[in-house]
Description:
Layout lengths: L9 H12 L4 E6 L6 H9 L4 E5 L5 H16 L2 H5 L5 H10 L11 E6 L1 H7 L3 H11 L6 E7 L2 H8 L12 E4 L16 H11 L3 H6 L6 H8 L6 H13 L3 H12 L5 H8 L3 H13 L3 E4 L12 E4 L2 H10 L3 H5 L3 H29 L11 E7 L2 E8 L5 E12 L1 H15 L10 E11 L2 H6 L3 E3 L1 H13 L4
Parallel strand pairs: 1-4, 1-5, 2-3, 3-4, 10-11, 11-12
Antiparallel strand pairs: 6-7, 8-9, 9-10
Helix pairs in contact: 1-2, 5-7, 9-16, 12-13, 13-16, 16-18
Amino acid sequence: MIQQSFVDRERELQFLTDRYRSPVPECLILYGRRRVGKTTLLARLLQTVPGFYFLASEEGTARNVQDFSHYAGEYLNDPDFERSRYPDWETVIKALVRHRNFSPPPGKKMVIVIDEFPYLIARDRATPSVFQKVWDTVLSLEPVMLVISGSSVSTMETEVLGYTSPLYGRRTGQWQLEPLSYPYLRRFLPYDEEDLVMTWCAIGGVPAYLRLFRPDRSFWENVEEQILCKGAYLYSEAEILMQYEFREAGNYMAILRALAAGYTTLGPLCQETGLDKGLVSKYLAVLSRMHLIKDEVPVTAHAGYRRRHYRLADPYLRFWFRFVYPRRAETETGQSREVLASIREEIAPYCGEMFEQLSLDLVRRGILFSGSSYSRLGRWWQKEVEIDLVGLNEVSGDALFCECKWSALNRRQARGILAALREKACEVRWRNESRNEHFALVAKSIEGKEDLRKDGYLVFDLEDIARLSREYLTGTGG
């Protein structure tokens, strides 16, 4: 296994370690999008516990069984184990647990990692049934922790975790690995806070993407070299991801391009893509389940609210479909400099949209407005009136109203935004007679922010976000 620097993942590693220490056999499911760091996490686990890692391929069952026996033989320190021929998964795993060198020390487990499990399913649809039988009749009776991992979120959620899957009910735990949160970007790049935010807006928190950005290059140099250059990894990664996940990749790409262009409701999405309403609704449900998009309703909306808005949630895909995909003809013909110049001209509104999304995530993680919690948190809108961020606490009656601006604000502008926010908050129908209102502003920079705080406003700019992010990383925050 390739060893890479280990950033964050303390909770995920603790989850795996706790399961390893449990007194019973474990069957764990670990999944998440490509390049999110699953292999690095599993490598770190296997540095401290006995076991081995097997990466499945698309070469069919016979080849995969033989490759599995190679890594099992290395673990058992028995070259003859690999040289033997095993007709199927059940036979090789039975031979493994019966081997004289199999048993771990008392109180320990042997960890068996099978990564990219969807490759096995793609070549043999019976694979989940086979592993259900192997677990029931062999592994569940041994001191074992089986970790089934995969990057195809759609396959893992339907064929492994789905109610109709033969493996349903066999798992003893599961974890979907998400991209790193914003504060961890400073572990990869020595940028100032504005460029760090723009980096998050362009590629998000996927560790493999962050490692592609060179620390000795500026943000824009990295965008040109790593995203806009034909042949660069991030130039084609979005398209590969779509083809990896979906049989009808073209339709999904059409929807994501429309979302990135600002078509956020069902009717306009159907018109822009030319797809009928039923198909678009089905595709949106799949994309939402994969956490690539979010479907939104006003934070005060009732459960049956129908007029949903859809947003592309993944920063890299949103950036790629907004700026790269529509201009691929120019990039293919060597005009990447011209494409870069046009992106620089159009980046501010895009970063404004993403800054709202980032601020929401920082609130959810307790980095912004720490000490407060909200049972409902998100955007609010009614006709032409919109508030970027509203948080409601059903127990305490606290109501947070916040505007997020990707701009440097002078005193007059900041106070004007907060005054308008107070007026808009009156339109939000939620405990209007008894709620505790808090008004907030988040921006690039805010002139006179200490005076605003003395007046009772909650104001944060990039300087504050940098400080709070460092405190979050060191555990010294409030």
